[in-house]
Amino acid sequence: MTLSDERRAGLAARQLALSCALIALGALLTSVQLDGNGDWVGTGYASLGVGAVAALAAFLLALRSNFAAPRDALTALSTASNLLGLAFLVAGVLAPGGAWMFFEALLLVALLARGAVRGETLGRGAVAALVLMLLFRLWITYQGSQHRWQVMTLDVPVLSSLPFDFLAPIQSISLGAFTPHELGFPRAGVNFAPTVGVWTLGFALLVLGLVWRARAAQEHENDRIHAAIWELQPNVARLVERLLPESEWGELGLQALPERALRKRIEALVVERVAARRDFERALRAANLLATTNTGGYGAEIQQALTEGEVR
Fold first, then answer.
1. Which residues contact 211 (CB under 8 A, 6 or more apart)?
2. Percent of the chain with pLDDT over 90
3. Mapping DSSP to helix (H, G, I), strand (E, B) and coil, where does residue 151 land?
4. Contact 140/151 with Cβ under 8 angstroms?
5. How would DSSP label each residue in 31-49?
6. pLDDT greater than 60 at residue 210
7. What are the DSSP E strand ranges found in the chain?
8. Closest C-alpha to 239, from 285, 277, 283
9. 172 - beta bridge partners?
10. 228: helix, coil or strand?
């Protein structure tokens, strides 16, 4: 490897470590709230437990498709940060209690598992669902901070306009009633403004850290593959990288392979692709393309490309 390649490999490792630190900071911010006395307290273990189960379920559902065993301290930290970051992210947006929490958890498990199967830590659908769930949690937290213990209240037409006190119980309909205990409020109540700021900042840091970690991990893997290829002679390594371009390394299954398996996989792919090219070149030389009548249109373009290849 050249000096620039070594610097690039070090940069990917540093980015991976920094993204893990960003995830840790976001997790801390989403798990605290400011009470009415001005003290910072935790949000409780109930939502975190559900978030951990949801993240673990999504991880296990995608385990068969793209599991990579950690090879060193950095990749172990990356894997742990990814799992814990998802747990805190889910916990930070879940409704604190009731049937909403379990419905949201099931939806997020499906979205996160589908993204993981595709190789995405957070897909667009998952991010959109997380944002909507965060807004819903902030809304019910605001309602609770104003001592309104329901999601919303709807006035009943006609009845709500009648000036009779005995009709008060049926003049409005409360939707989604909850209690301070379900919200995980501290005894002194919650100071909404700073709490929502901390939660929102933590959510943003978690999303940014998880996306950054995924990209940094992929770049770290590509640097490792690049280093394995450049153990060969420079002219041979350049030919191998032309046969196996970096854009295809993920599809070819090179990423996340152990060191020995990675080299054996590169060897097998090179042998396979060189043999395929030789077979094609033999078939191209055997075909008398120059004597074939040009049919025009779609076929003409393909025939011209093959003819130029034969001439070369």
1. 121, 122
2. 18
3. strand
4. yes
5. TEEEBTTS-EEE--SHHHH
6. yes
7. 32-34, 40-42, 150-155, 172-177
8. 277
9. 155
10. helix
For residue 41, list its beta bridge partners: 33
**Angular region, 127: left φ>0, alpha ψ -120 to 50, beta rest:** alpha
Residues 219, 105 contacting (CB under 8 angstroms): no
Residue range 32-56, pLDDT digits in tens: 888 888 888 888 787 888 888 888 8
What is the average per-residue pLDDT within 223-247?
89
Closest CA to 218 of 13, 29, 53, 4: 13
Q: Which residues are registered as beta bridge partners of 150?
A: 177
Beta bridge partners of 177: 150
Tokens 């049937």 belong to: 99
pTM above threshold 0.90: no
Measuring CA to CA, which residue among 123, 124, 59, 54 is closest to residue 93? Answer: 54
Whose tokens are 């190789």? That residue is 119
Summarize the confidence of residues 204-228 as an average pLDDT: 90
